[in-house]
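Re: the 89-residue chain
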Amino acid sequence: MLFAGIYGFVTRRNLLAILISVELVLNAVDINFAVFNRYLFPAQLEGFFFTLFVIGISACEAAVAIAIIINIYRNLRNLEVTNLSQLKD
């Protein structure tokens, strides 16, 4: 899942597709936290707490990113990354 997210982040030009790719990377991190905690420290819950923290942070990040993407779409009527240089004017 991590490499699928990285591949999508590098190859996509649409801002929503890039956001989904970043969310895939964060979900891969969540899975790694939970699995490593389960096998390395089965009696402790730190990995699960980190997972909940990352899920909360990614939800906030997604909300802010969607708000920014909506504003970009209102200004440019396009979500391609190559057209973002028009916002400098």
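The chain has three helices and no strands.
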